[in-house]
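wait is this the right file?? whatever heres the structure
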């Protein structure tokens, strides 16, 4: 998968490298994301920008940590041949202030939380949805934990359960 990354309103850091590492880890646990034909865009931006996107596209006038806008249906993604023209998987965006607040509240590094949200957003683009059922949420959380473990990042759900 090829990722186009835009960064605006985030502190200095190697966010692009983090995003590429998170995408590689996501593709390890969800192999459909490793299709070389896939293109995705990832925006690291501000709460104000994500609030506008959330309001305009979801009717929720508040910021959130990550939004995903898939452009392929899951069956089309899963059956996408590796050869052929590029296919747009979708767009994802992360809000800096919300991510930073959440990371501070969990006492984890912003980089680790951002990696988690990149993986989370990419899994949404691949058709995973934690809001459908408890079983879907458990499956998505398990994939996220496995991807983060590949990056040397602790399971964010174990930390929540232990609290």
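ok assuming it is, sequence goes like this
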């Amino acid at each position: 998968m090829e990722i186009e990354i835009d960064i605006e309103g985030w502190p200095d850091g190697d966010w692009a490298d983090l995003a590429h590492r998170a995408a590689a880890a996501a593709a390890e646990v969800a192999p459909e994301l490793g299709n070389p034909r896939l293109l995705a865009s990832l925006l690291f931006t501000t709460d104000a920008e994500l609030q506008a996107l959330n309001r305009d596209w979801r009717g929720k006038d508040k910021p959130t940590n990550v939004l995903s806008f898939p452009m392929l249906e899951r069956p089309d993604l899963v059956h996408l041949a590796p050869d052929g023209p590029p296919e747009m998987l979708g767009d994802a965006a992360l809000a800096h202030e919300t991510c930073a607040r959440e990371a501070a509240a969990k006492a984890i590094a912003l980089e680790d939380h951002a990696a988690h949200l990149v993986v989370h957003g990419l899994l949404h683009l691949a058709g995973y949805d934690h809001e459908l059922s408890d079983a879907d949420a458990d499956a998505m959380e398990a994939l996220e934990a496995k991807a983060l473990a590949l990056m040397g990042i602790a399971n964010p759900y174990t930390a929540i359960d232990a609290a």
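Residues 2-157 form a domain with the Collagenase (Catalytic Domain) fold (CATH 3.40.390.30). so i think its the right one actually
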